């Protein structure tokens, strides 16, 4: 039953309710069935499989009519599915299971009612660990960074040049925030204005002892959102030097994010018609009976055409590609598609051989490989959704207008419109004529001059578009590193892609089982043999795209608090042959005045500064497994503290 579609499940519920639950009341009576499942309302004309036909035969003895009702209006049925009687809850963990809130016994007062007869069903709520001002002041006073900053703050004057040269970069980062630092109740804050409302926010100068606790609360226990959203949550509340790099490291090494989120590699092209991607999508049946759309997208320019069809046959694909794309825009060098039978058949293969076109396809269980078409499909759905209700049934007639609007709009990843990149000139819209902004070519220009001007314009536009595409791809890869291309050495611990059957909306992208690379079966790192760590006899041969290396979450150590060497006195004569040492000394002195980002790759390898307060070490990203990778974390040993977060439960 887990493999049933939503229509099949609704049909099964309808059959059970009529033929079993309410049979005695409905037999011999005409009645109406209201459902929020639109396909179920076409039950009498739908093509049914053997199981559905058997269910329909059981319903044949009843006289009823099925009507569709939108989900927002189907509230009476939704009310019946709600559980009215909820058992009494006796702890905050039962109410909010996603947060591990320890009870705070210090300073708490017990209350005993003097009138027991007035006592009802009392819910005992554990006290949240509220930090008092004195606690925050003590933690800041013992923090290595804030402790070094406090003497300058107490005297009311920033450090001079000689004092700056003796302080590490993290302390100098606080010095650069001198005008923003405010003191409230002997606790230091940073005052900033948050966009877009310019609201003033006081960010706590967070001690190192609380960083892991804050990141666990705002990331692990707050839905495992990405680095950007987690940074926004942290920035509204607190601040510490090199905060952004620490948050990026925390999110990158999060076990649940690694398992549950997919990696989307970027396809790089250099000119139009180098790679053309094709894909089918299905919409609501139009008034003329068509419900399928063949999407054809040029990967470089993002120029897209969408062709309504009545089927998804290979003959239809070949005919549209030949008559509407090849004869209009040109023959591409490569066609990219998924592994649908209509795209992998003999007919399309012969078409590619006839025109000398290379054919590529996505790997199994990997729709991201054709992400350009998939992304346009989502944009197309948004455009169609904005149509008036009376025009939505006529979407095939309006589709060219919507696609033209998309092609003439500047694309974010290229900085130009798809139309301009495809044809070498800006599109002329009706509003340009209204505003008198239509381009006017001189009447005396010759065809050769126009071709030269056109080529120069195309060259400049292509260079700018390639820079935008490279920057956009690099930004995506920095936000989500491409873990499906690097060669995996033997012994690497990896996760395998999860191919669970049934509905996969909320399933993890990667299996929680830890595998180890046993052997690379080719010389380019494409196919590997892996075995389970818990069961070495369980071996599999998989493609590289099915594997993701495991990144271990270590201790947050932004930089070692080591002061740069003192500058050499002017009267000292520099020794011969030490020019490199002088450059290192000058660069370290200069780093006191210029902010340098945290070296994320060395965060987990550095030894943390001594801290008087205990700190939870999140070392092992999987449960019941001791991991010791020689070259990564030789100093880290221990067990990750168990979490009661609902996001961490498997």
UniProtKB/TrEMBL annotation:
Transmembrane feature ranges: none
Ranges for region Disordered: 532-588
Pfam families found in the cross-reference section: Integrase_H2C2, RT_RNaseH, rve
One GO BP: DNA integration
Residues in the signal sequence: none
Domain Integrase catalytic: 268-426
InterPro entries attached to this UniProt entry: Integrase_cat-core, Integrase_H2C2, Retrovirus_Pol_polyprotein, RT_RNaseH
GO molecular function, one term: endonuclease activity
Keywords: Endonuclease, Hydrolase, Nuclease, Nucleotidyltransferase, RNA-directed DNA polymerase, Transferase
Protein name: Gypsy retrotransposon integrase-like protein 1
Organism annotation: Solea senegalensis
């Amino acid at each position: 039953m887990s493999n049933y579609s939503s229509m099949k499940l609704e049909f099964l519920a309808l059959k059970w309710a009529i033929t079993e639950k309410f049979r005695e009341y409905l037999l011999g009576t005409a009645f109406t069935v209201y459902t929020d499942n639109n396909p179920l309302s076409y039950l009498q004309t739908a093509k049914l499989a053997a199981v559905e036909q058997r269910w329909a035969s059981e319903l044949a003895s009843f006289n009823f009519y099925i009507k569709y009702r939108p989900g927002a209006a189907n509230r009476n049925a939704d009310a019946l599915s709600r559980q009215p009687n909820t058992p009494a809850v006796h702890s905050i963990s039962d109410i909010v299971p996603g947060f591990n809130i320890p009870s705070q016994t210090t300073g708490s007062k017990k209350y005993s009612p003097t009138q027991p007869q007035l006592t009802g069903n009392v819910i005992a709520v554990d006290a949240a660990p509220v930090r008092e001002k004195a606690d925050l002041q003590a933690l800041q006073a013992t923090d290595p960074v804030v402790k070094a900053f406090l003497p300058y703050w107490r005297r009311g004057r920033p450090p001079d040049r000689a004092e700056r040269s003796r302080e590490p970069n993290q302390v100098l980062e606080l010095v650069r925030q001198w005008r923003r630092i405010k003191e409230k109740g002997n606790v230091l804050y940073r005052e900033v204005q948050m966009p877009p409302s310019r609201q003033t926010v006081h960010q706590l100068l967070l001690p190192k002892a609380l960083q892991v606790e804050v990141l666990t609360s705002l990331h692990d226990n707050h839905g495992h959102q990405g680095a950007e959203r987690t940074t926004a949550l942290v920035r509204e509340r607190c601040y510490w030097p090199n905060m952004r790099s620490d948050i990026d490291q925390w999110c990158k090494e999060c076990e649940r994010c690694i398992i549950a989120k997919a990696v989307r590699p970027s396809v790089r092209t250099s000119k139009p018609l180098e790679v053309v991607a094709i894909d089918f999508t299905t919409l609501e049946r139009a008034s003329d009976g068509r419900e399928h759309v063949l999407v054809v997208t040029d990967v470089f320019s993002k120029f897209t055409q969408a062709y309504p069809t009545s089927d998804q046959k290979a003959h239809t694909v070949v005919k549209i590609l030949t008559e509407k794309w090849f004869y209009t825009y040109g023959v591409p060098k490569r066609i990219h598609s998924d592994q649908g039978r209509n795209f992998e058949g003999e007919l399309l293969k012969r078409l590619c051989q006839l025109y000398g076109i290379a054919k590529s396809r996505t790997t199994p269980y990997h729709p991201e490989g054709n992400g350009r078409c998939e992304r346009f499909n989502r944009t197309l759905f948004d455009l169609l959704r904005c149509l008036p209700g009376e025009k939505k049934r006529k979407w095939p007639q309006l589709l060219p207008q919507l696609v033209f609007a998309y092609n003439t709009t500047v694309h974010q990843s290229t900085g130009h419109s798809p139309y301009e990149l495809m044809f070498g000139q800006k599109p002329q819209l009706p509003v340009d004529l209204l505003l008198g902004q239509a381009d006017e070519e001189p009447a005396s220009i010759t065809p050769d001059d126009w071709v030269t001007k056109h080529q120069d314009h195309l060259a400049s536009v292509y260079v700018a578009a390639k820079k935008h595409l490279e920057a956009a791809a690099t930004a995506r890869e920095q936000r989500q590193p491409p873990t499906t291309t690097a060669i995996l050495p033997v012994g690497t611990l990896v996760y395998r892609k999860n191919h669970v059957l049934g509905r996969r909306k909320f399933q993890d992208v990667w299996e929680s089982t830890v595998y180890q690379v046993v052997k690379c079966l080719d010389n380019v790192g494409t196919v590997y043999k892996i075995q389970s760590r818990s069961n070495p006899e369980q071996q599999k041969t998989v493609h590289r795209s099915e594997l993701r290396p495991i990144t271990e979450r270590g201790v947050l150590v932004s930089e070692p608090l080591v002061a740069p060497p003192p500058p050499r006195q002017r009267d000292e004569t520099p020794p011969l042959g030490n020019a490199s040492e002088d450059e290192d000394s000058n660069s370290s002195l200069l780093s006191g005045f210029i902010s340098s980002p945290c070296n994320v790759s060395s965060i987990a390898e550095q030894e943390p500064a001594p801290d008087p307060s205990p700190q939870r070490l999140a070392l092992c990203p999987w449960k019941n497994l001791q991991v010791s990778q020689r070259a990564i974390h030789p100093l880290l040993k221990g067990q990750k503290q168990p979490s009661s977060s609902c996001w961490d439960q498997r």
